[in-house]
Amino acid sequence: MVEEAHRDYYIAQVARLLHDFDRKAERFSKVLALHVQQPKLRPTILQARQAFKNLIPEIPYIGGKGNRFTGDLIGCAMVLALYRALKGDGKSVEEIGKIVVEIEQDRVQSYPGFVVTLLGRLIHSPLGKSRLKKMAEESQARRYPGGWVAVYVEGDGEAFDFGIDYTECGLVKFFHQQGADELTPYLCLLDYVQQRAMDTGFFRSTTLAEGAEKCDFRWKRGRETKPAWPPPWLEN
Question: Which of 26, 31, 155, 197 has the smallest number of CB atoms closer than 10 Å to its CB?
Answer without folding.
Answer: 26
